[in-house]
Amino acid sequence: MVSRVSPRSRKVAVVPNDAPAKTAPPKCAKTESTRNCSFYEEDQCPVLGIRSNISDDYHILPRVLGSGHYGSVRECVNRVDRKWYAVKSIEKSKIGRLDHLQREVYLLSKMNHDNIINMVDCYEDEEHVHIVTDKYTGGELFDKIIENTTKDGCFSEVKSARIIKSILEAVAYLHANEIVHRDIKPENILFESNDEDSAIKLIDFGLSRRHQRGQALMTNPVGTAYYMSPELLKGKYDKSCDVWSVGVVAYILVCGYPPFNGDTDPEIFEAIKKGSFSFPSKGWSDVSDECKDFIKCLLRKDPRKRFTAEEALMHPWVRHSCIFSKKQELLARINKLTLGVKNVRVHC
Length: 348
Known about the structure:
Layout: E1 11-12, H1 39-44, E2 58-67, E3 71-78, E4 84-91, H2 98-110, E5 119-124, E6 128-134, H3 141-148, H4 157-176, E7 179-180, E8 189-191, E9 200-202, E10 209-210, E11 223-224, H5 230-234, H6 240-255, H7 265-274, H8 281-284, H9 289-298, H10 309-313, H11 316-347
Antiparallel strand pairs: 1-11, 2-3, 3-4, 4-6, 5-6, 7-10, 8-9
């Protein structure tokens, strides 16, 4: 069955009990105090361990930019440097296990990569945890896919490869630091700006966790239906599940619909477990063999044979497409410069 990319999908089977031992509160700007927290504060502020008022440092605008199951995102302004940021306010009462929220904040505090969301600050009061991040204005990759999908496909191979390269660089960074994302999908990829060549940012580390080399396989099937790998659904998986998700995203970027489809989550899961997919003429008739081979390497059913993020970055489709993209950018700049010189001559 071929259909358009799915409506905004929900996370499924999110009941992880595979959390590692409780981590220390993350060292955000407001948790670096050297004084000891009172028992009351530890009880009221289990995520950061200390209560702080975000309004002391930021003015939060009332307009909601986006909302989800656990909270909302709004704009805010730093009261000192007047810079604009985004703040995600999470209602603690809606979180089943606050140690998972603590883990998310902890992991975000350790991130330092151009293609991963940058957490600026974090606050906790009696009802909320407020995560302040850089503000990204380009929107979700999911919405761009919806806007660009036609009967002939979605993005060009060059643009698809550029986006996938950035995602893979983020994933390679995570895996090198023994972190597994577990929910890579277009909804969790933002464009930094509305520029044609805008950088992308991987967001939402709510399902992420550390998984060290040699550690027992993860067992909880968490994630979002269309992007879950066969071994994840079977309950025995490692970091290679992220590479599978990138392969699904790559497939969708090119043609506009997912490789494993169904009307219900169980139907989607069955299609994924079988691991069989094809490149029908709709959206694939003019696509290169290199692109198809790249996707096949990421969607290998056996995770032992599946490419790693580093290997995927070395695939000819990614390398050649990105070289071509850079040549196009260079030619565009030369043409713009040439036009500017002609205009100067005319005015002279």
